[in-house]
Design goal:
Structural class: mainly alpha
CATH topology of the largest domain: Rossmann fold
Strand order of the largest sheet: 1-2-3
Number of strands: 5
CATH class of the largest domain: Alpha Beta
Distance between the termini: 35 Å
Bound molecules: tryptophan
Largest sheet: 3 strands, parallel
Mean pLDDT: 95
Order of helices and strands: EHEHHEHHHHEHEHHHHH
Number of helices: 13
Low-confidence stretches: none
Length: 333
Amino acid sequence: MENTKKRIFSGIQPSGNLTIGNYLGALRNWVQLQDDYECIYCVVNMHAITVRQDPAVLRRRSLETMAIFLACGISPEKSILFIQSHIPEHTMLNWVMCCNTYMGEAQRMTQFKDKSARHADNINTGLFTYPVLMASDILLYQADLVPVGADQKQHIELTRDLCTRFNNTYGETFVLPEPYIPKIGARIMSLQEPQKTMSKSDPNPNAFICILDEPDVIVRKLKRAVTDSEGVIAYDPDNRAGVSNLLSIYAACTGKSMDQSVKDFEGQGYGSLKNTVADVVVDTLSPIQAEYNRIISDKEYLSKVIEEGDRKASAIAQRTMRKVYHKVGLDSK
Ligand code: TRP
């Protein structure tokens, strides 16, 4: 039978050490999606340079991010895994899409506003067109579904607008993608400011737990996690963000319901909550870390996986780009 599976595209930036938020909120779902969809997963290193990066660190982190994908259970036999900058079609489509995006549309993006406030000394035009590059990633592969966190929904909306505009102007070219917000999959918050999403680029390293953190580091960061002075363990994310976040991490790592998770801590204090959460986080991460260490020390295997993924991604990207250049009149036929 023909391949009738829907296609999924998603990407993660290699701009820091991936956190348990990336794992519990995204990567773990990516692994599950592999059986029901044709999945394409990308290390989006070109998005990373919208903020200043150390070249050697960026190069290393792109490989490490790929090794983490593999260690988490993303399989190069089932999915296409590749590195964005290896496929020049991303920049080609990006330019065409930039010429079909209005200033006002890009100006409305809340992530642009946030990031320009945080990097006031480097508000570059790449930061401004970041969502257009993201749209190009998605449209280039004709993706049906894009699994993203809630913070990226606005970018998917823009992608859909650009897609529809292009198809209307030049004729049917791109598949109209939809956001895919998984039913399971937790939104993990900062351990220091639990009103904010846990982020790998947080300046305070105590705010996040990395997938590759050693057990003693995990224990220490959780001991320092912000709670409150109520002293009772209950799930109430609006008013008791810190304690609720610890419960979410517990539920996500154990697969238990929130009701059951709260019951598990009945009559206990914050100290034992933090210890138990540390235990389940360590248990969740240690098999991934072992696998990561194996893969990162096998450079030959890692480059073979990347080469193979690049080759498959390139075939799809070239097909779309030929179509786009023809529609726009940039080819010479
Ligand atoms: N902007 C996304 C994020 O920060 C990363 C990303 C880039 C992406 N290109 C993408 C996600 C394409 C999904 C699809 O999370």
